[in-house]
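# step 3/5: fold
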Amino acid sequence: MPISYDSLVAGRLNLPVRSVTQTLQLLADGATVPFIARYRKEATGGFDEVQIAAVRDQAQALLALDKRRDAILSSITEQGKLTADLRQKLEGATTLTQLEDLYLPFKQKRKTRAMMAIERGLEPLADRIFSLRDPNPEQTARRYISDNPAKAGQAPLTVADALQGARDIIAERISDDADARQRIRLLFEREAIIRSTVKKGKETDGQKYKDYFDFAEPLRRVPSHRLLALRRGEAEGILNVSIAPDEEAALDRLDRQFLGQHYAGAETADRNKASQDQVALAIRDSYKRLLRPALETEFDNRSKDKADEEAIRIFAANLRQLLLSAPLGQKRVMAIDPGYRTGCKTVCLDAQGNLLTETVLNLFASEAEKQRAAQTVQTLVQTHQIDAIAIGNGTAGRETEAFVQRLNLGKPVVMVSEQGASIYSASEVARQEFPDKDVTVRGAVSIGRRLMDPLAELVKIDPKSIGVGQYQHDVDQNALKKGLDDVVESCVNSVGVSLNTASAYLLQYVSGLGPQLAQNIVTYRAQNGAFHSREQLKKVPRLGPKAYEQAAGFLRIANAKNPLDNSAVHPERYELVGRMAADLGCSVADLVQKADLRKQIKPDRYVSATVGLPTLTDILAELDKPGRDPREALTVFAYDERVKTIADLHEGMVLPGVVTNITAFGAFVDIGVKQDGLVHVSQLADRYVSDPNQVVRVHQTVRVKVLEVDTNRKRIALSMKI
């Protein structure tokens, strides 16, 4: 990570230069975002993960800009066309758009109309006309025709052909002019309208896009979800979509630039009016044929990038909330994956999530089968000392929940989202975990483990399959993966990972590890038994000093000899905590166990050149609650027993629900009828809401009122204004 970008990055992000310099240095030295945010607060001035990631991304963008600048300079130099003035402009460009505008006249193009006209010797004619000083372009054109006779295989030029060729050359020059592009670009930014119409004959097939059959809105105001919907409709062949400002306004700007004092109606007596008319025609051709299509593509891409960025931001926020959902913890769980036809696949898991037994319950067969299923459930609960029951919320979920509740087992019954469970059950990860089990067993196990620890289980599934995104399959997939990987890494490290129980798939997200070192840890654990101290990590093959530094503080060892090994205190600060204990005449274990001893610690005494009050504050917080889980405690939710299908709903009903997804236009809520209802952003609160995440979060329990039910379209409108 280039440190030389520190001033530019600091300026763009409005951050202190010194803090940005230190952050870039740490990143260049191989530190991860979670490590820097947690253990290098003094160096960065307390940057959080969002700020550190922004510094990283800005520096990477500047590096990409410089690489492109170097490539352009090299290309123009090879053409022998690099002037001192052009070099200065290229070196002063601060965006890729500016660079590409300057490079456009020198970029290798496919053969254009202007190139063909130049080959016919018409460039001098174009120069003369473009100078606006030729009183008779037609007469001049005749001279060029006689001076440039047709070559073998070429049709003879007419006066009209020559003038057209000259206008083609002028049109391309106008299009390639950096100032002209910028003028029209600014017009697009301020006044472009995005329009859509339905394609002929697609009215029936495209009913879900009905709102966009005749649609227009200023591009700068269109929200991300609407733009992505328009683009999806276009991609599916339903809609025609265009982006452009008022054409007369665009031509007006070009006329002012290229006709100058002759703009807007010179006197007809002007002796050069004929050449002015030719340039005016070239301006209109340049805009319609070259400039407008190019800038429409640019703004199509630019608006798509902006919409992608917003959609990814929403997806990332939802994913964070989902991954940090309240865990049941290490409890013994029965998990049921409901099904009508094939029965309900049922598994029992121990407190570590290991599979104990499996069976199938036939709840939707004969009365005798139901009785056998009831007896089976009761026996399994007693035999395996089950603490809680997880039921998938898909097909037959509500009926299965009701069946289990009627057994009065005295155990919490929790509905668990099945989103992505089928993806996991057919994945390579699942095959490695359960090579001799079929997909139904793996799916049931996943449901149970999600209840125990949503984070540990959901990291095994592609986030796009978890069901908390907005048009996630339409956005830039590389940007989406990068954004979501950052979220997963952040969540895993903020919670911490049990070194002796975590899977390789979870360990790979720990700061400084990755897939190979994660697998090496699991292999070492299998061969040598449980880790007794963090120090043992140094014996894992290929886990060197840097990886140890980055990872150790995020790995926990329950019941370790050194209690700090089960905390977020980094091993590099063990000696410091030891001094604190020695100064109080006690052991580190006493310091962890006795609050009265911790209260006697005076942090100021331990400030040094490398350890400041931010780190000391974190250490003292960890000593108060070593190994604490930052996630909330699990609360059991119950649907309203009156509703099980959409047919049971009527306007005005007030029901409990669970937020399942948040988008820019509102929140989707599961009220137990297999079809989530939408609380539009305008119905989230009795005040203006710009961002639904300010009001609700994924997995939050809410009370909603039914506003409207559209059974045919399976749409439910809800409100939280009760």
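# step 4/5: annotate
Residues 646-719 form a domain with the OB fold (Dihydrolipoamide Acetyltransferase, E2P) fold (CATH 2.40.50.140).
# step 5/5: archive (pending)
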